[in-house]
Amino acid sequence: MKKIVLGNTGLETAPIVFGGNVFGWTLNKKESFKILDEFVDLGFNMIDTADVYSRWNDGNVGGESENIIGDWLKQSGKRDKVILATKAGMDMGDGKNISHDYILKAAENSLKRLQTEYVDVYFTHTDVEGSPIEETLAAHNTLVKEGKVKNIGASNMSPERLKQSIELSKQNGWPAYEIFQPEYNLYDHEAYDEKYADLVNEYNLAVVSYYSLASGFLSGKYRNESDLNKSVRGSGIKKYLNEKGQHILTALDEVAEAHNTTQAAVSLAWLIAQPNVTPIASATKSSHLKAFREAAELELTSEEVVKLTNASQEVEMH
């Protein structure tokens, strides 16, 4: 499978990253191991998780995803076959926190759960207004110096704070954010296009996008409100069932039919075709991984990329 180099990191990843939010939520440990083995056997190699996954599930406290991945790494012996990314800063019970001491402690806890001596990418998962960026970056600098973190990234951060952080790192000779993780998909891409695209180009940042399939809407299986009970994520999909969403589904249907593939594969292929972008997507079934494989091998024409983009920009004229 073709590999993509993530910005300035030197890390070579397959074109789709596995989203580990499903581990300990919609997949139990046994099912998670099976999906992870299949994912790597197909030629994919990057897994994205966070300390807060999957704290939102009843009875969970956070760390469930990392624990499952750690147990899988230990049992499978595949640590050297994967690029591992995790994150810190989201509310683990005491509010959002990206202070110096918190980041250092959170990293130690994540490494313990993941049963590894280092992570390839460590993300500041969220920004906290008023929290000094020097503190966060100094903590990352310590972790990189100690060999516990190889590269750092940022998610859910304003363009202004992201730029300030990169410039401050350069001034101090610290590791800088090399990967940005925004919400970005065929339905929701205007915010990224308007606020972040120029910044990404300026610093040659890699973009690893979340909500790549808009909570499953871009898989094409949700067409109307009666479809929303098809999964636990259904309630979050209602907002896409509008005229814009229908335009996108029509274009996805046409392109998928032309390539004899799925709407999910086309949606991911559109993301892969964007500059600097490597999408994160979650899978709970082997059929989902098949869509990953098809997306990674799918070569959309430039006309098809434009057709899909235009469909996502069409709104009702009054």
Automatic annotation (TrEMBL):
Domain of life: Bacteria
GO molecular function, one term: oxidoreductase activity
SUPFAM superfamilies linked to this entry: NAD(P)-linked oxidoreductase (SSF51430)
The NADP-dependent oxidoreductase domain, residue ranges: 15-310
A Pfam short name: Aldo_ket_red
GO CC terms of this entry: cytosol
Record bears the keyword Oxidoreductase: yes
UniProt keyword list: Oxidoreductase
Protein's name in the database: Predicted oxidoreductase
UniProt source species: Pustulibacterium marinum
